[in-house]
């Protein structure tokens, strides 16, 4: 992965709106642009600009289906970034720590 590609990817992930759109697309694979727009209070044009940035970064792919576009999440660019800064040893421990974090966040906290 070259530096320009990496810059494009980090730029795409820097926006909260784009991260939310990516979460929606990941959760609802094959959703349409209109379905993504329903989750935001900003204009359709603004959402489409954010989607274009995600597509340019390779995080989203689209498939034309009649008059609509179906959107799909592409995890490869994120995986390439992950692979660049991790090795087998750190992958193991990072995975374990992430599992603990998610488990602890789901458990209700009891008052003392």
Give a written overview of the molecule.
By secondary structure, the chain is an alpha+beta fold. The chain has a single domain (1-107), classed as Arc Repressor Mutant, subunit A (Orthogonal Bundle). Helix content is 62%, strand content 12%. It has 6 helices and 3 strands, in the order ααβααββαα. Strands 1-3-2 form a 3-stranded antiparallel sheet. Strand 2 (60-65) and strand 3 (68-73) form a beta hairpin. Helix 1 runs antiparallel to helix 4 (44-56) and helix 2 crosses helix 4 (44-56).
Write a compact overview of the structure shown.
The protein is α+β, with helices and mostly antiparallel strands.
What's the CATH class, please?
Mainly Alpha
Largest sheet: number of strands, sense, barrel closure: 3 strands, antiparallel
The Cα radius of gyration reads 17 Å
Strand order of the largest sheet: 1-3-2
| Uncertain spans | none
Report the CATH architecture.
Orthogonal Bundle
Q: What is the H/E order?
A: HHEHHEEHH
By CATH, the topology is Arc Repressor Mutant, subunit A
Mean pLDDT: 91
Percent strand: 5-15%
Task: Let me know the CATH homologous superfamily.
Answer: Winged helix-like DNA-binding domain superfamily/Winged helix DNA-binding domain
Give the tally of structural domains. Answer: 1
Tally of alpha and pi helices: 6
Q: Assign an overall shape.
A: globular
How far apart the termini lie comes to 50 Å
Q: List how many beta strands DSSP finds.
A: 3
Output the structural class: alpha+beta
Indicate the percent of residues in helices: 55-70%
């Amino acid at each position: 992965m070259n530096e320009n590609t990496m810059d494009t990817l980090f730029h795409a992930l820097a926006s909260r709106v784009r991260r939310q759109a990516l979460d929606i697309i990941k959760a609802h694979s094959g959703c349409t642009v209109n379905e993504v727009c329903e989750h935001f209070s900003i204009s359709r044009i603004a959402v489409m600009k954010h989607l274009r940035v995600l597509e340019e970064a390779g995080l989203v792919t689209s498939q034309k289906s009649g008059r609509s576009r179906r959107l799909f999440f592409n995890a490869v660019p994120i995986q390439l970034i992950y692979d660049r800064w991790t090795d087998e040893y750190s992958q193991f421990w990072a995975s374990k720590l992430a599992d603990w974090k998610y488990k602890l966040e789901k458990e209700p906290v009891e008052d003392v």
